[in-house]
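hey so i finally got around to running the thing on that chain from the lab meeting. sorry it took forever, my laptop kept dying and i had to restart like 3 times. anyway pasting the input first so we r on the same page abt which one it is
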Amino acid sequence: MTQALFAYLLMRRRLAGRLLLEIGWVRLALLVPMLLAVVGRAVVLAASSPGWQWAVPVSVALLVASAHRQRSDLRFLAISAPAYRWWLAVEYLLWVVPVAVVLALFQHWAAAGLTLLLAPGAAALPPVREALGTRHKSQSWFRSEAFEWVSGMRTGGWAWPVLLAGAGWQHASPLGPVLALAGWLLVVVACYGTPEPVTMVALGARSARQFLGRRLILGLGYAALTAAPFWWLLAVGPAGIGGAVAVAVAWLGLVGLIILTKYAFYPNATHIRTTQALVVGVALALPGNPVYPVLLLVATGGLIWQSQRRLRTVLGH
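ok and heres what got predicted. didnt touch it at all, straight out
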């Protein structure tokens, strides 16, 4: 069993290496430092704030569980290796060791232990399609035209009430709703990480501008509706109405950039996801930096131009 486990971990390392090669060294040189800065800042902030260290193991476990349930190789592993869940548990344990180390450095030993305990438990969860079933699907609250939200909320919609409850519990501090909005942003990003088939674009667009405008209207509309309770918690808290409006504008602007990024690199899913991660990383790591507004303006203009150019190519215009 030990040899099989090592063989599995070696295979996963090779797959990760191939993915990194596909992403390219330029993107990696930009993406890795940004993600490390954002994730590191979030973990350190939570670990250094009284009571918030307990949010780290829960958040990490939820992220691991979401990634696990969407894996495409679970059915193959179930057929070829009966002990595969133990392999996955070890893999997930290795993923979260750095987070547990940070918690331990702040002497949050119980939270560090809970992180190491909860994350491997995700291996016992069934894949998303198996849990939902293939014949009976729940009625969606979203229009079928907003297919990103329909499919995305079936897998990640459970996070909304959890995040809202956490934001309401900590609404006396602006940090609670802001962190909850950051978590909800990650769920929204996951909705726009998978490109739809080219036939859907061709059938749903008369022109690149018309198609892109419709995607932005639907995406920003549903994003605003789902984020409104978090903004309200900010408005009635210490941040006040002005702070809530500023956060809302910045948050919706990020969602718009995520949608534009999807079509700027359509239909390459790897490039879409890595560039979206880079956009979110820059947005969360550089607020307050004097170059941030200029960088944001250039990125917005570039993504608008590239997304329309890419869609024209796809549509044959």
